[in-house]
Amino acid sequence: MQKLIAGVHKFHSDEFGRYKELFHRLSRDGQKPHTLFITCSDSRVLAELITQSKPGDLFVVKNAGNIVPPAHVTGDTNSTAAAIEFAVEALEVTDIVICGHSQCGAMQALVEGIPNADQVPHLARWIEVAAPVRETVRQRYSHITEREAQITATAEENVLFGLENLRSYPCVQSRLESNSLRLHAWFFKIATAELFAFDPNEQQFAPLVTNQ
Ligand SMILES: [Zn+2]
User: Domain 31-207 in CATH: superfamily?
Assistant: First the structure.
């Protein structure tokens, strides 16, 4: 906690000056983020840092495993669904990014199970929302036997699963029909901080920035 409080002090003394005008303007005019960015709660995945975004740019949803449940699955207390509806309907974002990542603990749990599932019932049920991804990986990636590669394939398929599920939300459907919303599937490789984007034509993930 000391580290956090020291960070707050450092922000106000060293950094806040160059953001002062921006925060003032955002307070006065409200937020108008261009993108809903859905990624994992993992402490190594920092949406604003890796996209060099400023306050007001991104509406960020973080959850364990960056799972996007289908609109009908988890009932009325689904905070991810609530954030999607708010970003799409009220904020009118023009883009939605779902960003998975390497070495994802939630994806590992999806593949290998949770050893003490009864101690973490919410987590266990949440991970199971992505159970169809486990089946997809079993069917399509049976040739991959290496553990790390299997978890990476699961993380990539989970992002595509999320993209499909986004399409099940009526608010997303109507914005897609009016061509005012774009959906993106990204993958972040922690070791090199590289970002990959799914190319629907090639049906594979390719580096987002080719000269990095
Ligand atoms: Zn993760």
Answer: Carbonic anhydrase (3.40.1050.10)
